[in-house]
Amino acid sequence: MTERPDLLVIADAADPELDALESRALLRRLHPASQGLAAALAEADAVVVWNCVVPGFEAAFTEALAATGGLPRLRWVHTTSAGPDRLVFEALVTHPAVLTCSRGVLDVDVAEYVVACVLALLKDVPATVRLQGASRWRHRRTRSLAGTRGLVVGAGSIGTATGRLLHALGVAVDGVVREPREAAEPFGALHAPAELASIVGEYDVVVVTAPLTVATEGLVSAEVIAAMKASAVFVNVGRGHVVDEAALLAAVKRGRLSGVALDVFTVEPLPADSPWWSEPRAIVSPHLAGDSEDFLQRLQALLLEQLARFAAGEELLHVVDGQRGYATS
After folding, report:
1. 54: closest CA among 25, 76, 79, 72?
2. How many CB atoms lie within 10 A of CB 177?
3. Is the pLDDT of residue 76 over 90?
4. What confidence tier does 50 reach under pLDDT thresholds 50, 70, 90?
5. Between these two residues, 180 and 185, which has the higher pLDDT value?
6. pLDDT-above-90 percentage for the chain
7. In the CATH hierarchy, which top-level class contains the domain 107-284?
8. What is the pLDDT of residue 2?
9. How far lies 125's CA from each of 118, 134, 141, 142, 279, in Å?
10. In the 3-class helix/strand/coil scheme, how is the chain assigned residue by residue?
């Protein structure tokens, strides 16, 4: 049992949500770009990676391992991201410290963002905004969401929340899962990743919510993209590397897809000269699908619960399976 563990929080801002943690831990804050990360890791009982991206974290972790003979104090590492891929590296997953993620915290907000993007694409909202800016009154017909078929690639907690909202709006939703299981609401059917290219052409809406793992990297390949309906809309809120981005861009430019919404990219921040910025059939956002004000409150509640469990020596929530690359519960 540890009454008040030494907690290192790696964050680039003094978020007020962090203040509440001081009642449960001896809190130390470090900017992601600061020197001395390895030394700070060596002195911590637990680490919270508040930012999704911490340059040099793996190198600092490896350095601290060598300097301390295995980081004997460190017993817990948590990421505020739902997807732990940036922390799934060999030195950490083989260390005795438990790695946890923020599974469930982002579900509602990401699902709402997906539905907002799907509706915006079907209702031609980007063109309406452009026409408004040009003071042009141009009537046209748009498309309905109700009565369509949707496929969620990655039917975990975020994918299930997304499926529920789509289903509530009249979409017949199926999913793609790594490990076969019996389909349950909101999914009518669940498919294996190997089936993706053969089934994707049946769907009007395709949404990627899958985490980045060895198994999902490049899953939405050029073959899969070529098999989609030309009238389909495509949304990626998972990870950029799950999708063949070059093939997707080529398909959009050829009119092979009616519209895409991308919140994640293979390179982030998206470079200023990326052709995605000026693509009229694309909605581009800076990895913000889950980042609402309510998300921070839910994240704070999760961290307080985790700290209470850690101090009491109890099992932590949302433990990441190092082999799978994500939390299974």
Report:
1. 79
2. 19
3. yes
4. confident
5. 185
6. 87
7. alpha beta
8. 58
9. 10, 14, 12, 9, 14
10. CCCCCEEEEECCCCCHHHHHHHHCCEEEEECCCCCCHHHHHHCCCEEEECCCCCCCHHHHHHHHHHHHCCCCCCCEEEECCCCCHHHCCHHHHCCCCEEECCCCCCHHHHHHHHHHHHHHHHCCHHHHHHHHHCCCCCCCCCCCCCCCEEEEECCCHHHHHHHHHHHHCCCEEEEECCCCCCCCCCEEEEECHHHHHHHHHHCCEEEECCCCCCCCCCCECHHHHHHCCCCCEEEECCCHHHECHHHHHHHHHCCCCCEEEECCCCCCCCCCCCHHHHCCCEEECCCCCCCCHHHHHHHHHHHHHHHHHHHHCCCCCCEEECCCCEECC
Position 18 scores a pLDDT of: 77
pLDDT band at 296 (very low <50, low <70, confident <90, very high): confident
Domain extents in the chain: 6-105+293-327, 107-284
Give residue 1's pLDDT band: very low, low, confident or very high (50, 70, 90).
low
26 strand-pairing partners:
6
What's the number of CA atoms in the CB half-sphere (13 Å) around residue 280?
Answer: 8
The total of other beta-carbon atoms located within 10 Å of residue 291's CB is 13
Report the CATH fold assignment for 6-105+293-327.
Rossmann fold (3.40.50)
In contact, 63 and 57? CB cutoff 8 Å: no
The tokens describing 81, both together, are 């991201």
- Asked if 110 and 131 touch (Cβ cutoff 8 Å), the reply is no
Q: What is the pLDDT of residue 205?
A: 98
Q: What angle do CA 129, 135, 137 make, to 5 degrees?
A: 80
pLDDT for the residue 168: 98
